[in-house]
Design brief:
By secondary structure, this protein is mainly beta. It has one domain: Metallo-dependent phosphatases (Purple Acid Phosphatase, chain A, domain 2). The protein is built from 2 helices and 11 strands. A 6-stranded mixed beta sheet has the order 3-2-1-9-10-11, covered by helices on one side. It has a 5-stranded mixed beta sheet with strand order 4-5-6-8-7, covered by helices on one side. A hairpin with a 2-residue loop joins strand 4 and strand 5. The radius of gyration is 14 Å and the shape is globular. GO terms for molecular function: hydrolase activity; metal ion binding. Keywords: Metal-binding. This is Phosphoesterase. Its cofactor is a divalent metal cation. Belongs to the metallophosphoesterase superfamily. YfcE family.
Length: about 170
């Protein structure tokens, strides 16, 4: 399984579509602040949530399940993610999710906290406190998960990421 995780594209639909075409993931998760009409989002298997800058009436939170994994997806502005990831972790636990995907801070973050893998892909357009725009790709092979961060041109970064099991 291969999942592309993006956030905070802020109206850059062409760039978002280029990344989706390049990665060729089985599923795409957009953690909000897409800032376009919903019909301009990529035509693919997609889970999308509304960010604080979005006007489309998509859900504020979603659960997506695949290959024995449950993903909690939110933008993060309602969970104080600029201060601490713990409220997102607690919400993921309440919902029985092993993975929480969120954005809002425009800062890439990937860490397993307790029994939840927290993933913020950063922003593909407006990084904050990080030298370049990023997105994340999660792959699952058997029970091994890998999260790799990429620059928007497709170059993998050496910063951030995860490799391991969730048990």
């Amino acid at each position: 399984m291969k999942v592309l995780i993006v956030s905070d594209s802020h109206g850059k639909g062409k760039l978002l579509n280029q990344i989706v075409e390049r990665v060729k993931a089985d599923h795409v998760i957009h953690c909000g602040d897409f800032c376009t009409d919903e019909k301009q989002l990529p035509a693919c298997s997609l889970t999308v949530v509304r960010g604080n800058c979005d006007w489309e009436q998509v859900p504020m939170e979603q659960i997506w399940k695949r290959d024995s994994l449950t993903f909690f997806v939110t933008h993060g502005h309602r969970y104080q993610v600029k201060t601490t990831p713990l409220p997102v972790r607690y919400r993921a636990q309440e919902l029985g999710a092993q993975i929480a995907c969120f954005g809002h801070s425009h800062f890439p973050f990937c860490e397993k906290v307790g029994d939840v893998l927290l993933i913020n892909p950063g922003s593909i357009t407006l990084p904050r406190g990080f030298p370049f725009p990023t997105y994340a790709v999660l792959t699952k092979e058997k029970d091994l998960l890998t999260v790799t961060y990429y620059k928007t041109d497709g170059t993998p970064t050496r910063q951030r990421g995860f490799k391991g099991r969730l048990d």
